[in-house]
Amino acid sequence: MSPKIVKTDAEWRSQLSDIEYQVLRLAGTERPWTGALLDEKRPGVFRCRACGAELFESQTKFDSHCGWPSFYDAMNSDAVTLLEDVSHGMVRTEVRCANCDSHLGHVFPDAPQTPTGNRFCINSVSLSFDAGDGPDAADGTDAEAKA
Predict the structure, then answer these.
(1) What does the DSSP 8-state code read for residue 145?
(2) 121 is known as an active-site residue
(3) With bands split at pLDDT 50, 70 and 90, how would you rate the model's confidence at 88?
(4) Catalytic residue (one of 48, 51, 97, 121)
(5) What is the pLDDT of residues 117-127, one digit of tens each?
(6) Closest-CA residue to 95 (of 103, 111, 1)
(7) What domains does the chain contain, in order, with CATH numbers?
(8) 80 in Cβ contact with 127 (< 8 Å)
């Protein structure tokens, strides 16, 4: 894994839009059902919007009906860090990018229909998407041709 990215607040503010900064650097939350990647179904890789680190593979994404993109596992155990979050009068597990320490969302153990039982509830604005990356695209065929 690449070295941890450290930037000043001013550098992050110049790189990110207002909503990206609010969510990624201040642990905000985008409104449910508004994210650009909520309905993304193509094969590919979801990356950290702040630093580009690979976080989630498309085949781990599922529709949890919660209003944010949901995944049942991270790409690897080093992709994200999990921290106890006691804000807003509740105890949750926060998910952060291990590479740049940006806030991504939260993980909940409430998805028994998945192989891990986990639901990584991730803000769309925290992610970028690279279509065609990852195992589903490794054979060189077009995703639409497979459908």
Answers:
(1) H
(2) yes
(3) confident
(4) 121
(5) 999 999 999 99
(6) 103
(7) 9-134 (2.170.150.20)
(8) no
